[in-house]
Amino acid sequence: MEFCATPARRVLPFALVVLEATGGYEADVAAATGSGDAMSTPAPGEPSAPRRTLRFGRYEVPCDEKGEPIELGRGGMGVTYKAQDAKLDRVVVLKVISSRLHDSATMRQKFLREARLLARLAHPNIAAVHDIGEEGGNDFYVMEFIDGRDLGEVVHGTGPVAVGRALELTRQAARALAAAWRHGLIHRDIKPANLMLTHSDRGGEQIKLIDFGLAKAVGTAAEDYTRITQTGETSGYSPAFASPEQIECAELDTRSDIYSLGVTLWYLLAGSPPFTGTSRRQVEHGHLHNPPPVETLKGRVPPPVVELLQDMLGKEVEDRPENPEILEAEIAELLRDPAVASVYDTIAFETSAAPPPSGVRRTRGTRRTRGTHGTTPDVAAPAAVAHTVEMTAPGAIIPRVPRWLWAVGGLIVLLLLTFIV
């Protein structure tokens, strides 16, 4: 693997430890201080300039073909890079606090809090944290490297996602939110860019939730952490996927994440969010006052899925699913319906058994009962089931045949056989 030969000051906006890879102390000093020309090309016949490695402790930041460090993304708190764990010989993600924030003790504490929050959430649908550290006064933490694309890239590359697949990806995201909710956490920035699509050990598609930079501890869990993020602080959220209460800087709970996940499901199915506009104000006005434009989904999305979207996108929090566990169970129920799970191509879904969700289940078409989320009687979770959906014509819906029709058909066949005999 080739590592950076670019001067540290030209590569990153913060100090890095530059270690010699093959020799040349003077060249290393020049690269570390920004003096000299570490990028100069040697004359023909002269030995190549020694390679240098940019490191945070044991983690080495590799370069792309242009000699720049591989930057995976930027968020409100920091910048993420592809890195190599020199001890364990594996690729990881290195998240370093943003240069504009590392001088603030409060923001550094918030950055480290994000890492500790993630470390508690050991779940297959959440990116794992491996390590945390400091190098040259710069805080960083290390996460698993996810070899895949985020859902925004998926839709941008191939267009809207088939109904069954979109539901399964959303169900997995709901599982991740349920794990956070059980730890008293809300994410506050659910959107396609923070949902990575990769493959599980079994070969199926797997969602990984990333970027808890805006996460907030609520309830009893808030006592375990310093309350860096105050009630009403919403800077950095994405307006296209924000809940009404988030836009209004009101108190949030897990149902805010459910709303944002509903917008994400809509995006997967339609190729764009339900509320758009030429300005941030127009988008936020849509979330606050306009009903979801469900008429645009007619003919493409089965009515039960449209109902689910309307529930998730309820303006009032009481109208949404009580918590992510209930949402996951409702989606799993839809996936068992062949009329809903029909897709354009053959996809195998794995719906694993989950612990019984807490909350009141309801019959679709009735208004959700108001009440406190997560404090109502248990309901049996869906049993483990594998859904293999065969190929259908584009947009085709497999009808559900009523039992009485099967009985009538059987009786007719029996009468015909009797007549023939």
Query: What Rg is obtained from the alpha carbons, in whole angstroms?
Result: 26 Å
Poorly predicted spans: 1-41, 220-235, 343-363, 369-400
Kindly name the structural category. Answer: alpha+beta
Number of strands: 15
In terms of DSSP E residues, the strand content is 15-25%
Topology as a string of helices (H) and strands (E): HEHEEEEEHEEEHHEEEEHHHHHHEEH
Produce the secondary structure layout.
Elements: H1 8-11, E1 17-20, H2 25-33, E2 52-56, E3 59-61, E4 71-74, E5 78-85, E6 90-97, H3 105-120, E7 129-135, E8 138-144, E9 149-150, H4 151-158, H5 163-182, E10 185-186, E11 195-199, E12 205-209, E13 216-217, H6 244-247, H7 254-270, H8 280-289, H9 303-312, H10 324-335, H11 338-341, E14 347-351, E15 385-389, H12 403-420
Antiparallel strand pairs: 1-2, 2-3, 3-5, 4-5, 5-6, 6-8, 7-8, 9-11, 10-13, 11-12, 14-15
